[in-house]
Amino acid sequence: MRLAFQPTKIISLKTIEFFLVRFLIFDIILLGPMGFKIWGSISERHLLLGLSLTISVIFLLKRKSYSLTALYALIGIIFYFLLWGFIIPLLNQGNVSSSLEEIKPAIYFLFILSALRLRNTSRLEIIRKDLILWSLILGMIVVVAWFMATFSMDTSYAIALKLFYSLLGGTSDGLYIGPMPDGSFRVFWISCAIFPWSILLLRQSDKLWFLVAIFFVLAAFATGTRAIFFCAVIAFAALFYMHTSVRTKLVSLSACAVLLGVAIGYGLEGNETSRIFDIQSELEPESARYIQTISLFESWEGSEIFGNGFGASATVVRSESAPFSYELTYIALLMKTGLLGVIYVAGLFYLIHYSINSSIRHKVIEVGSNSSVYIGLLLFFMITFTNPYLFTIHGLILLICLIMAATNRYVGVHRY
Question: Which of 10, 115, 184, 363 has its CA 20 to 30 A from that of 318?
């Protein structure tokens, strides 16, 4: 006698892991800086990340799930945060609780495990399309709010947008929606930092890639954030150069270089009517970043080799709620981990880069993909130089997914 109910095939862990990665990308891009709170300070974002990491650990326990390089990188990351996040602060009689608070986001590095498992080419292409789609929707939200407030003088949509995300995450922290000192209107939260990399994900085979790239530049401008806007302009110039014919490469590159030079020159002239172009004010001795730079170097003196450890703060405190946080990411890192720590981090990034290349070595890399990845990495380091917020779940997860999604689109018989 046959049963009426036939059990279906159990969904594999790989499928669940892939779904979690996709949902995390949607969550991070479109659900605001905090996601939505479930209980206390725990959001659905933490649960998704925890599930993803749990599955990665299960695969890690299986042989041949990861290359030895990936395993070494993981061990190196754990050792790094153990040494500079716990041991050195103890030796320096620092505030260990502040140190643990600062390195708490370090767990996001472990998401590399999930990203390195996405070796299936079709899945990488799905992630690339997801990133572009959600970025387009985010860009529309930002541009509409900015356009209405700037040209129609109607801020009702922007106010509703800020209220929505504030209620969703339980706080308005991280939301910068409103007028700036120069009179322009700004619509920004950390997810908007994806716009430059969304440009680099566009392929020549994508429909309307040129118009979509221009739209992302406009969305970056609407954020009112200099670093994001200038990185978007550079990404657009790089994309335009890669996707144009040999005859027009020189002309297009020269035109983009002139436009970027004019924008930077306009900012160096100390223009006070457009904050997004104002670069000169950041170079003045009374600017906040200039003062932070002097203070961080002074605190680094005497601990040049090992630094002061995570959780340490300089004589100038940028934020009372997070005294260890500074906008000048790499100078702050030098103060906290010393020369040895900076060299160590550079080595870790090399291991991660080598592991990613190893994981896709058996596939063909589409022409131009490698260039997009390296330009994306360069822009990442540029934008984090004066912005601390990208060393968070947003920056790390999106960076890793972008690297994976921008590579090896096709499987073939040729090797480059």
Answer: 184
